[in-house]
Amino acid sequence: MSALWRGRALAFLGVVLVAFSLRSAVASLSPILAEIDSDIGVPSWVAGLIGAAPPVCFAVFGVVTPVLERRFGLQRLAVAAMVIAALALLGRALAPEAGTLLAATTVLFAAISIGNVVLPPLIKTYFPDRVGTMTSIYSTMLAIAAFVPPLVAVPIADTAGWRLSLGLWSVFAVMAVVPWVATLRRSRRTAAAADPADAVEPPPPPRVLGRLFRLPLAWAIAVTFAVSASSVYASFAWLPIILVDLAGVSHSEAGALLALFGAMGLPWSILVPLVITRWRRLGVIYAVATTAGLVAVAGLLFAPSAAVVLWVVLLGTPQMLFPAALVFMQLKTRTHEGAVALSGFAQSVGYAVAAVFPISFALLSEATGDWTGPLMMIGVLMLAAIPAGIVVTRSRTIEDEWEQRRGAW
């Protein structure tokens, strides 16, 4: 651990705090939405837009962030994202009516989207020799921040009011600003001391985002991200209802099983980056994720009540593709601009699919009157990981692929 920290403690702290802020800001609203509604009134259409905002913002700003990074740089963008997130969190807590709540939430998710894109390249920049370890820490913090706010949001809202329950998460966003500001100032001083010319902003790197649309490797990583994100969004939206209808569990049992599904992301967040970076077992990750997902779908279709806990555990296993995609955004690039562009591209495509998948899931269920079609949709989604895994397991980067196909990067 000393080698990990030496000279990089601020960057380490910055990664941890930004990661926690990214997910806690999302997870802290829905548990107390009823309390907010009883106070200021939140129409159903506003609640629906708030629910749809995260994947939509993540998809849009996945494309926008590489453009902003070329202008401002990674550290500045990380600082700006956390400052905006802190202000939006306070604005959400102070919202006098539903329209302001929606506007502040949208701005918040835009800032979070930028943070999502810049963190993998920041890890690649500051910890090129510890990509697996740092991605494991990063994705683990995301998983922790997904279940901690729902545990404490309601008790705090009951004792101190919903505004404090929402606003307290801005503290973590403010804390996340500090190490990156210090890191940025240190970088400027170091560059100026070495050579005053180095302190001048470098010219913008070449535009590479557009190139990724023509690279199978970039699409494979985007599909990997989409499979994980889409299955998670669909499951959080509909799995309890499916379990009640098909397996005959009670509503309280379905809620507990959904919590089990969500908890499956934590061990994979720790293990998968290390498996990929230390043992290079990329194919194993795809094989386990795809097989588990398909077996879970088959179980829910043909014997839903026979082993419902097992089906939920297996359905949660493809979440391992999420930390895998985060690692690939770093390992499958040689250049700084390539890492930023790949992070933006993969997250934009992945979250765009994740935004429409639960809606399509619901429409198909309504059209057919049962859950067979939607569950088969998940099965087809899992199958999409097979060709993606074949492409990703090849030993090449996006720069290698471009040079092989088009010439100089």
Automatic annotation (TrEMBL):
Pfam families: MFS_1 (PF07690). It is found in: Cell membrane. It is a multi-pass membrane protein. GO terms for molecular function: transmembrane transporter activity. It comes from the Bacteria. Its main location: membrane. One of its GO terms (cellular component) is plasma membrane. Keywords: Membrane, Transmembrane, Transmembrane helix. The chain crosses the membrane at residues 44-65, 77-95, 101-123, 135-156, 162-182, 217-243, 255-276, 283-302, 308-328, 340-365, 371-392. Residues 7-396 form the Major facilitator superfamily (MFS) profile domain. This is MFS transporter. The gene is cynX.
